[in-house]
């Protein structure tokens, strides 16, 4: 074998060795990533379980429930307890945002009118807030002091506001929502939705009647008709 052939062979050998070493490393990397993802999910689920049952948790309790060490929590969540709370809060807010945006579609507005859409919005949000009441209470109490909690809150609020703005635009185009500044009306829906997270409503014995009045108030605010009729 000549020098040129030897160099070509050696180069090809190195390329093959690198290729197979990468292929062998990939499953290990994937396995580590998958394990890390599962551990993180288990920690969030353990935090949610504690919050929904007791309204509070400690890092030690969550670690024990998830079957890991406290050090693992700080490895997955550098902000420690606030990181766990923010991840649980994020999951709760996912449910709240879904409840606030799912009813706000052109189809619902056309099929059920503004009154029916607002009733679905109020009912969905009330149920979501009731389901996550203890999670929300714990997170909101820490909101002023915790950057990660504020980031989670603001991100979901922005998602809800964007969905509200789209709903307002579609409703105004269809003549089913009154004229006015679309951004202002979208913000009105955000404030209204946040206000449903109130113990007076969530704990009311006759909550159906109170929900109906809230829905009617929103219809009056958004309707193109002078008296809020749909």
What can you tell me about this protein's structure?
This protein has 2 domains: about 5-75, no CATH class; about 80-220, Tetracycline Repressor, domain 2. It is about 80% helix and about 0% strand. The protein has 10 helices and no strands. Helix 4 crosses helix 6. The longest helix has about 50 residues, at about 5-55.
Topology:
Blueprint: H1 3-54, H2 59-66, H3 70-76, H4 81-101, H5 106-131, H6 133-142, H7 147-173, H8 182-195, H9 199-202, H10 207-222
Helix pairs in contact: 1-2, 1-4, 1-6, 4-5, 4-6, 4-7, 5-10, 7-8
Question: Brief description of this entry?
Answer:
The chain has 230 residues and is an all-alpha fold.
CATH names the topology of the largest domain as Tetracycline Repressor, domain 2
Number of helices, where a helix is a run of at least 4 consecutive DSSP H or I residues: 10
Give the topology string: H per helix, E per strand. HHHHHHHHHH
Overall pLDDT, averaged? 87
Question: Strand percentage, roughly?
Answer: under 5%
> Which class best fits the helix and strand makeup?
mainly alpha
The backbone outline, from C-alpha atoms, is: elongated
Main beta sheet, described? none
What's the CATH C level of the largest domain?
Mainly Alpha
Rg, alpha carbons: 26 Å
Low-confidence segments, given as residue ranges, are 13-29
Write out key terms for the chains shown.
80% helix; Tetracycline Repressor, domain 2; 230 residues; mainly alpha; 0% strand; 2 domains; elongated
């Amino acid at each position: 074998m000549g020098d040129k052939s030897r160099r070509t062979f050696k180069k090809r050998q190195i390329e093959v060795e690198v290729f197979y070493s990468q292929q062998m490393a990939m499953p290990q990397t994937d396995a580590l990533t998958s394990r890390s993802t599962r551990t993180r999910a288990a920690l969030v689920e353990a935090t949610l379980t504690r919050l929904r049952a007791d309204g509070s948790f400690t890092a030690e309790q969550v670690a024990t429930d998830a079957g890991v060490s406290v050090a693992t929590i700080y490895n997955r969540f550098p902000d420690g307890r606030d990181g766990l709370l923010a991840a649980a809060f994020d999951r709760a807010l996912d449910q709240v945002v879904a409840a606030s945006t799912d009813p706000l579609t052109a189809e619902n507005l056309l099929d059920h009118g503004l009154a029916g859409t607002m009733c679905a919005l109020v009912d969905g949000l009330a149920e979501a807030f009731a389901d996550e009441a203890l999670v929300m209470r714990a997170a909101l109490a820490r909101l002023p002091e915790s950057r990660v909690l504020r980031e989670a809150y603001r991100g979901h609020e922005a998602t809800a506001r964007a969905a509200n703005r789209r709903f307002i635009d579609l409703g105004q185009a269809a003549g089913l929502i009154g004229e006015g500044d679309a951004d202002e009306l979208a913000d009105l829906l955000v404030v209204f939705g946040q206000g449903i997270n109130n113990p007076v409503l969530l704990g009311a014995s006759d909550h159906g009647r109170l929900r109906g009045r809230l829905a009617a108030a929103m219809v009056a605010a958004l309707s193109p008709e002078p008296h809020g009729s749909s």
